[in-house]
Amino acid sequence: MEIYLDANATTPVLPQARAAALAAMDQDFGNPSSIHSTGLKARALMDAVRARARRVLQLEGGRLLFLSGATEGIQTAVLSALNALRERRASGDTRALTLLYGATEHKAVPEALKHWNQLLGLDLPLRAIPVGRDGRHDLDWLRAELPQAGLVCTMAANNETGVISDLDGIAALLDAQPGDLRPLWLVDGVQALGKLALRLEARRIDYAPFSGHKLYAPKGIGLLYVRDGAPFTPLQVGGGQEGALRSGTENMSGIAALGAVLAALEEGRSFRDAATLAQFRARLTQALQEAFPNLQFNAPQALCLPTTLNFSVPGLPARLLMDMFDAADVRVSGGSACSAAKAQPSYVLEAMGLPPSQTTSALRLSFGPAADEDFIAEACARIRACGEALRENCLSIEDNHPLPADGVTRFVVDGACCWLVADASRRRCVVIDPLPQLNERLAQWLRCQGYQLAAVLDTHTHADHESSAQALREAVPELLQGGTPDLLGWPAAQQRLELGRCWLTRLAIPGHTDDSVAYLLHDEHGLRMAFSGDIVMPGQLGRSDFPHSAPLAYLDSIKRLAAAVGPHGLLAPAHDEDHRFATTLSAEAAQQPLLGRALAGQIEAAAFAAELTALSEQAGLPRCGPMACGAGAATQAPPPQALSLDGLRALLERAPHTCVVDVREPYEQRLSQLPELPGLARALSAVPLSRLVDALPQWLALPAETPLVFFCRSGNRSAQAAQALRRLGHEAAYTLAGGVALWPRTAAADASLDAALLV
Q1: How far is the C-alpha of 8 from the C-alpha of 214, rounded, in Å?
Q2: Residues 666, 557: one domain?
Q3: Which pLDDT belongs to residue 401?
Q4: Measuring CA to CA, which residue among 391, 382, 378 is closest to residue 326?
Q5: 156 in helix, strand or coil?
Q6: Of 392, 422, 453, which marks where a domain is finished?
Q7: Of the candidates 407, 453, 410, the residue with the CA atom closest to the CA atom of residue 429
Q8: How far apart, in Å, are the Cα atoms of 398 and each of 94, 317, 318, 381, 401?
Q9: Which residues contact 159 (CB under 8 A, 6 or more apart)?
Q10: What average pLDDT does this structure show over 366-381?
Q11: Given pLDDT bands bounded at 50, 70 and 90, which one contains residue 249?
């Protein structure tokens, strides 16, 4: 059963609402503007739903329009208010009327203000009402600004944090203004419907939009309340529907469904009372605190809707947490669904003054008022399971019981790569090219695993960031092994660095910098890969125009590297801007003419240095942090072929030797259940994307015709994996389109969801 905890984004459709919509399509399909019996039946249905909405909202007067949703309602209200302000200006009002909106408002409001302000040629100043650390509007600031305000826009309750606005406080400030100077007031009521008593008429709110899909109705239906006497300008004109206030044939199936939801709300069916919802929230709070001991809540619960929790887990990015929850079939979000794809810190939390450690790791958990006891119990159980998955992977700050780590793991920050090489046989490890942003996480991992730290190495003196090697050593002095390190971290007097079943040697490769080295990873079978720094990166050569570069030595270093690793030896770079993971000299020679000539002996050292320096000085180089580290324009590999689930089934039938690889991270793999497909269990393996480079040698050794099919949650990471294989010469590499997110739900899961919503 899917545990859907993103109700502030949208909700499933209540079964009785779905039935009402289908009945309207089948039986009451008439046009309510028609005067025959079928049309009259539709009109009666629509009028009954409008009357019910008035009762639910406790309205005696005002206009209540059916429209497509809150965004249309906001557009209509803003247009109406700004058109009235334009008329005031035309009649001689010379004040610079300010448009005020809450700093934490849904983006639909400020974007509508900007749009209509420009389109109407008003050029009125827009100002954001600041909020405090509790997320509530600064009423002192608002009091000072109101004398010049023409329109005030505030939310009843915030969609990201659940913070309930002090509407009474705002109303008192507005009422204190002289009658003809009182600004118009728009209140976004989307998150309040069914949860708060808005008292629209008592507070003299001019406009209040609502959206049906936030309360178990279908998408595409909403309401707009307009106070008697408030100015109104139709957004849509035409056939004169809705009393000529909103033209266009009414969405009868949506109206019928909304009516069923309002009936359930009015009659006390399906929806829990505030005390029960608060109890549910308390149980979810406890489960979250047990799962994530350092969790921080981003808004005071006493001021929030009982159905919303916004929290952060410092040290863990929001994307990691979302992937983990999603693997457990728990749906949460990073904030507003409209902004989720931008992968930026929440502007709502930034407006509240929260530090980056919270804004970058924030998640929103929201449930609807139809949630029941079984749903909350299962949600709590899965949240605790997520905490257990973190503890197994050293991602929790306490009570970890990790699975032993082995092999090569890659970390990436803004294109810069850090490598962790672990050997479970002797519980020893090495960190290569550490990054300051990762030190805390790496130190926690080292303490959690209890591995001895044989060395912290840099491949060269980096131009784009300071080495954090010494800081990492100082963070875990009890785990350090080996002698005094040199400037790049190699223990003095050691020819090779023993880890257990594997070991490292080093190779001087000056060029990109005069101190550049490669670290060669060996095991009993031979050379596994080389950590080659920036001498050769996927799609580029390292720049050679830094003050500490050695351009004349570059060609000899390439030849020395080629002699050590061969044309097909794997190179793990210090930078990887385009998610290519690793490369080989043969792959790069085919794409970089200068490198190809160098390996073929067709160029001398001085000429090579001159051409590379010219490439290095070109403008528009790809950037890695504050400084471009690569020279030359990287070519894009063609996208890998995407298979549908049916395509995967067919491939497993005709090619039994197919390898199917789950590239999700271990904490995701632990929490998820995969569908049963014939042949899948035999073909399936798990190689997290962070460990992809560790598995590349064995995949590249497979026959070229062996199909490799990668999958992840959404298809993005698996596409990167497949493209990396294809770039290195394995053409039979595929990605599963849409990932597990598009795998079919079972009939049992659908039945469970309906059961959870039934009365």
Answers
A1: 6
A2: no
A3: 77
A4: 382
A5: coil
A6: 392
A7: 453
A8: 63, 18, 20, 19, 9
A9: 8, 106, 190, 191, 336
A10: 96
A11: confident
Q: Are 652 and 658 within 8 A, CB to CB?
A: yes
Do 148 and 263 lie in a common domain? yes
Q: Note whether residue 423 is domain-resident.
A: no
Cβ contacts of 606 within 8 Å, gap of 6 or more: 552
The dihedrals phi and psi of 534, each to the nearest 5 degrees, come to -115, 15
Range of the domain at 451: 435-620+627-631
Residue 338 annotated among the catalytic residues of the structure: yes
Q: Which two tokens stand for residue 720?
A: 């990167």
**Quick check: is 422 in a domain?**
no
**79 contacts 235 by C-beta, under 8 angstroms:** yes
One domain for residues 190 and 128: yes
Side chain identity, residue 496:
R
The count of domains in the chain is 4
Q: What is the pLDDT of residues 294-305, one digit of tens each?
A: 899 999 999 999
pLDDT of the residue at 748: 45
pLDDT-above-70 percentage for the chain? 94
pLDDT digits over 96-105, tens only?
789 999 999 9
Q: Residue 637: its pLDDT value, please?
A: 66
What sign has the CA pseudo-torsion 565, 570, 575, 578?
positive
- Is residue 61 within 8 A of residue 113, CB to CB? The reply is no
Check which CATH number belongs to the domain holding 610 and give it.
3.60.15.10
In a domain, 367, yes or no: yes
Are 70 and 196 found together in one domain?
A: yes
The predicted-structure confidence for 400-421, as pLDDT tens digits, reads as follows 777 788 999 999 998 899 999 9
**CB 33: neighbour CB atoms within 10 A?**
13
What integer best gives the mean pLDDT of the chain? 90
Q: Which two tokens mark 495?
A: 């020819």
398 belongs to a structural domain? no
Residue by residue, DSSP assigns 545-564 as -STT--GGGHHHHHHHHHHH
- Whether residue 449 is found in the same domain as residue 595: yes
Q: Are residues 49 and 163 in the same domain?
A: yes
461-512 pLDDT, tens digit per residue, is 987 778 899 999 999 999 998 778 999 999 988 899 999 999 999 999 999 9
The H-assigned helical ranges of 27-107 are 37-57, 70-90
For residue 625, pLDDT over 60 is answered with no
Q: Which pTM was predicted?
A: 0.86
* For residue 628, pLDDT beyond 70: no
Q: How far apart are CA 219 and CA 242, in angstroms?
A: 20
Nearest to 129 by CA among 351, 290, 338, 316: 351
pLDDT of residue 483: 78
Q: Is 647 in the same domain as 725?
A: yes
How many other CB atoms are there within 10 angstroms of residue 388's CB atom?
Answer: 17
Single out the catalytic residue among 304, 338, 429, 624. Answer: 338
> Quick one: pLDDT at residue 394?
87
Question: Number of helices (H) and strands (E), helices first, in the chain?
Answer: 24, 29
Residues 141, 144, 145, 148, Cα dihedral to 10° = 180
Last residue in a domain, options 267, 298, 329: 267
